[in-house]
Design brief:
heterodimer, A: 304 residues, mainly alpha, two-stranded antiparallel ribbon, 2 strands, 76% helix, B: 390 residues, alpha+beta, six-stranded mixed β-sheet, five-stranded antiparallel β-sheet
Chain lengths: 304, 390
């Protein structure tokens, strides 16, 4: 009894901590963005109005509230630049996540089946790229992919191509960059679930007459689904909003939503439209997150 | 429905590899099988025949190679040497899914994402059985292991005993020619283990299947198996019926591993007809029966099981050296261990050694037949002794 009381108070504080974090660093900024998305652009500092002045008294505040409008959201729907940007972002994210899963799964599986003492080494190798700045690594890819870069030199030396291939400013380059950058985020959750899985389950399946590929599809893969879900989400969500990689590696003819946001904020100085676009992005990203959450909850309930 | 699993069906049902042994041929023949991990020789030249319909136990301490041998039978390990013939066909290099052998795993290895029904049906689906036939067979299996009503549960919604039954049903569903059981009862508590032992034996008899069980629990092996192979350090030390194993162990190690035993080292002094006279350091001169295979060495050990040692206040009448000679040793009760059904007494002999005697508590009253520090005579007949080379 006394033992419980000793732990009760710090434990309760610890439980509140994530909520405090969420309110301070998510909900409050979210409120700001929401407010700006309902404002009008203006040549001013800050570049939108109305601006709330909490000191100005109730009437002014009420007028400011009345001045808010949904015009920016209407613009997002009416101008197909934004729609295209969303569609492209989602397409890129889906394609890249699928590629990541296909490349990351075998790596994670291989890691999980290594002898114990090698698993730690493999884990370090997976996260070692994080030692170098992300931006530098992407610039390195520019170097590799450029006209007389490493990749073309190798391809020419192996006589696989007769003249240098154009890699930079193509979707291929962008996908290479994305897959390269996000691979650890796919591998680590997959590895975690696969390493936990008992190899004896695979033995049981083959003992019951399943050839190796069936063992994989009937036992290994279904049991690794929580890891697949976590890995895909960890990659999919940030890829949708990805800005740096498409900006540096892909062509400029079709933009992802992150690039569009950048343009609205910094080139057009249209903070309200940019904020509205960000709001829509948030809602779009919330859908897969909620789906995953529900799936997990159902699995938990089944497990009970 | 549950009683009707005719044996003839077993062969007819098998998809592939339904080579049944010819008359007089063993179902399974293991020939000089060896397996080395790195520099460790886990299984070291094991040869063994197992007949159709047998309940065979592989018994041994942990690390003796019994599990490795079982895994080679299932196909999870390939032997480095030797052959494994099932119905006359060498399956040593066949993959697990190609063998008409199923295994019940130690911790059951049930698929956590599948229901009881789907776990049992797993092997049947892989065999390409018809949907309707699968449903019938699953229902049959569920009834066989008394799991009716639990078909839709997931493994983690079952008790340990129920999980064990699902594992058994899943392994039996394909009607394998050979069922391997890897410590099948180790995870159950004592009471459940005992009742499950009986059920397994009953099931094996009814289905007429061949079972090979791996266990480190000698009581379990003795209770269930018709023959036991004792393994030590990768080798088969002895293959015998439970009775023979206990009453006529082939070596000192087996005598000590199976059951309790009193061992006295000594030297052969005299051969007198069918009697050997052995001088021991700790228990004086003992008269023992000549074993079936005549002994060639002079350094010998005399083994005597505790329940064959009798205690009394005065020694029995006997004439040393005569056919009716009885070994009687004087000593003092040094330790008493009351176990309910029996009591074990440790008697410190005047010669210096200790002999253990277990005595049935056949009467409820008068349990203190002997008390600590009381002088007693421990005696046993020459036929109750086993002579082993030291």
């Amino acid at each position: 009894m006394s033992g419980r009381r000793i732990f009760a108070r710090p434990a309760r504080f610890a439980a509140i901590a994530p909520y405090v974090w969420m309110v301070l660093f998510f909900l409050v900024p979210f409120g700001f963005v929401l407010k700006i998305s309902l404002s009008q652009t203006a040549i001013a500092q800050p570049p939108y109005e109305p601006v709330f002045d909490l000191m100005a008294g109730w009437e002014v505040l009420k007028a400011a509230f009345a001045a808010l409008s949904l015009d920016n959201f209407k613009l997002l729907v009416s101008d197909d630049i934004y729609v295209f940007a969303y569609v492209r972002s989602l397409t890129v994210a889906v394609t890249a996540s699928a590629l990541l899963l296909m490349i990351g799964y075998p790596i994670a599986y291989g890691m999980a089946r290594l002898p114990r003492r090698w698993q730690g080494v493999a884990m370090v190798l997976v996260i070692v790229p994080f030692w170098t700045s992300f931006l530098i690594r992407i610039y390195a890819w520019i170097n590799i992919l450029q006209h007389d870069g490493l990749l073309n030199q190798i391809l020419l030396a192996l006589h696989l191509v007769s003249q240098p291939v154009v890699w930079l400013s193509t979707d291929s380059a962008m996908y290479i960059g994305i897959v390269y950058s996000y691979l650890p985020f796919m591998i680590l959750p997959l590895y975690a679930t696969l390493a936990k899985m008992e190899p004896v389950l695979e033995e049981a399946a083959s003992d019951l007459g399943a050839p190796p590929w069936r063992v994989f599809w009937l036992v290994t893969f279904p049991l690794s689904l929580p890891g697949v879900g976590a890995g895909v989400l960890l990659c999919f969500i940030p890829i949708v909003g990805e800005f740096v990689i498409p900006d540096l590696l892909a062509g400029s003819n079709s933009l992802m939503i992150g690039q569009t946001l950048w343009l609205e904020f910094f080139t057009n100085k249209d903070w309200p439209v940019a904020s509205a676009a960000a709001m829509v992005l948030l809602v779009v990203l919330l859908v897969p997150l909620l789906l995953y959450e529900r799936l997990q909850k159902r699995q938990l309930e089944q497990g009970r | 429905m549950t009683d009707e699993l005719p044996r003839a069906n077993v062969a007819a049902d098998r998809g592939g590899g339904d080579a049944f042994p010819a008359e007089g041929q063993p179902l399974l023949r293991i020939e000089g099988v060896a397996k080395t991990f790195g520099t460790f020789r886990a299984v070291d030249g094991v040869s063994l025949d197992i007949n159709s319909g047998e309940f065979f136990a592989l018994l041994g301490p942990s690390g003796c190679g019994k599990t490795t041998l079982l895994r080679m039978l299932a196909g999870f390990e390939a032997p480095d040497e030797g052959r494994i013939l099932l119905g006359g066909k060498d399956i040593a290099q066949a993959l697990p899914h190609e063998r008409p052998i199923n295994m019940m795993f130690q911790n059951y290895a049930l698929f956590p994402h599948l229901s009881v029904r789907d776990n049992i049906a797993f092997g049947l689906k892989r065999a390409g059985m018809h949907r309707a036939d699968i449903a019938t067979r699953v229902a049959e299996m569920v009834a066989l292991v008394k799991l009716e009503g639990l078909e839709k549960r997931k493994p983690d919604q079952l008790s340990g005993g129920q999980r064990q039954r699902v594992a058994l049903a899943r392994a039996l569903a394909r009607r394998p020619q050979l069922l391997l059981l890897d410590e099948p009862l180790a995870a159950l508590d004592k009471k459940l283990r005992e009742s499950t032992q009986g059920e397994l034996m009953e099931l094996q008899r009814r289905l007429g299947m061949t079972f090979i069980i791996v266990t480190h629990d000698q009581e379990e092996a003795m209770t269930m198996a018709s023959r036991i192979g004792v393994m030590n350090a990768g080798k088969l030390a002895q293959v015998a019926s439970p009775r023979e194993l206990y009453e006529a162990p082939r070596s000192r190690w087996i005598a000590e591993f199976v059951g309790d035993v009193n061992l006295f080292d000594g030297e052969l002094k005299l051969r007198d007809g069918h009697r050997l006279v052995i001088a021991t350091r700790e228990a004086g001169t003992l008269v023992v029966a000549e074993p079936r295979e005549p002994v060639s060495q002079t350094k010998l050990s005399v083994a005597i099981r505790p329940e064959k040692v009798k205690l009394s206040h005065r020694g029995p009448v006997s004439e040393a050296g005569h056919e009716t000679a009885i070994n009687s040793l004087d000593g003092v009760v040094a330790d008493i261990c009351y176990l309910g059904g029996i009591s074990t007494y440790k008697v410190k002999l005047d010669g210096g050694g200790i002999v253990q005697a277990s005595v049935a508590n056949s009467a409820r009253l008068d349990v203190d037949a002997y008390s600590l520090n009381q002088r007693v005579v421990a005696w046993f007949t020459p036929d109750d002794c086993v002579v082993l080379s030291s």
